[in-house]
Design a protein that fits this description.
mainly alpha; 14 helices; about 70% helix; elongated
């Protein structure tokens, strides 16, 4: 016959076994015990092989762009020197100003070949063009996200006339044909700061591009944030914060903003590659960066003129741009799935 003490020990042992079994089952099914939402998101993201590979590719792009001057120094070339006119490289271009050799002049001295007509190094042009596009796109995306979040939160939370007029203003800006607006207003913006008789500095062109694209780049984020805030402002936890006497600023900062971080982050990951494509488009049509500033769009513009004679010149910037845009879009999908596993692919 079992004594009460033995029965109690047996019960405790069964409970301990059940707890251990539950923890093991939780580990097997991928459910974490006692972890924060951020930790759960990171665990789900780490299991997404596509997301991890995309993140590595994106980080590698930014690191290479940051270290472009170092890589150029080690490589021994720069994107500004006309190597076809250097005595050390007398036969880089033929009589038609096209690169000699195969595949655009690819060799041990020029890894990606040389530029037709001028003989500049394509590899360093690509590196510095990557630097120009990526970091301008980061600045532009941050400005657009901050502007869209502020306008969307104010309109969604306050409602009424504030929401109405902010909404009509957003609709007004959405009515602009963005590409045509960029082309038409870039010369106007640069003329505001620089006399038409003077050469526009590169930093001024960069500032003008950011201002013009920021002017028409925040509306999508504003609409997304507004709709998210409208769905949250009447929820129980927001009403409870109001009853407790919390200020509007505290409610927005502590109750609403943390609950809309996911759509903001995901939308931001889609805005950055779009900004890179828009910056390249401006240079391609001749209203962005000009000689001698290295830029992906300008490389496409040069390649479009000589693609029949030297199709390889467009290959390297084209592949680089496609890989980055694809990796960043896949990264955005993976981040969305990690935050909200119900939307998993």
């Amino acid at each position: 016959m079992t004594s009460p003490i033995e029965a109690e020990d047996a019960t405790a042992s069964v409970a301990l076994d059940d707890e251990t079994s539950a923890k093991s089952k939780a580990v097997e099914t991928g459910v974490s015990v006692g972890r924060s939402p951020g930790q759960l998101m990171w665990m789900r993201f780490k299991r997404d092989r596509t997301g991890m590979i995309s993140a590595i590719v994106v980080i590698l792009y930014f690191v290479i762009a940051l270290l472009a001057p170092v890589i150029s120094s080690v490589y021994g070339k720069n994107p500004y020197t006309l190597y076809a006119q250097e005595p050390d490289f007398p036969f880089l271009l033929d009589d038609f100003a096209m690169p000699t050799g195969t595949f655009g002049g690819v060799s041990g001295d020029f890894w990606f070949g040389v530029e037709p007509n001028l003989g500049r190094d394509v590899f360093t042009m690509l590196l510095y063009g990557m630097r120009t596009s990526l970091y301008m796109a980061v600045v532009l995306t941050v400005l657009s996200v901050v502007t869209g979040v502020l306008i969307g939160m104010v309109g969604g939370y306050f409602g009424g006339k504030v929401d109405y007029w902010l909404g009509r203003g957003t609709d007004f800006f959405l009515a602009f044909p963005s590409q045509l607006f960029f082309i038409a207003f870039m010369p106007v913006v640069t003329a505001l700061f620089v006399s038409p008789t003077d050469e526009t500095p590169t930093y001024m062109r960069a500032l003008a591009i950011i201002l013009v694209m920021w002017f028409l780049g925040w509306m999508g984020m504003a609409r997304l944030v507004r709709s998210s805030v409208l769905s949250l402002r009447d929820r129980e936890f927001v009403e409870a914060a109001k009853v407790s006497g919390a200020s509007r600023w505290r409610i927005v900062r502590k109750e609403i903003l943390p609950n809309i971080v996911t759509p903001i982050l995901v939308q931001g990951t889609y805005m950055l590659p779009s900004a890179i494509l828009s910056i390249a488009f401006l240079s391609y049509v001749g209203v962005g960066f000009v000689e001698p500033t290295p830029d992906w769009g300008r490389m496409f513009a040069i390649g479009a003129k000589i693609y029949e004679q030297d199709p390889s010149f467009m290959l390297f910037p084209g592949v680089a741009l496609v890989i980055f845009v694809l990796a960043f879009n896949l990264l955005g999908d993976s981040v969305r799935d990690a935050f909200d596993p119900k939307t998993g692919r």
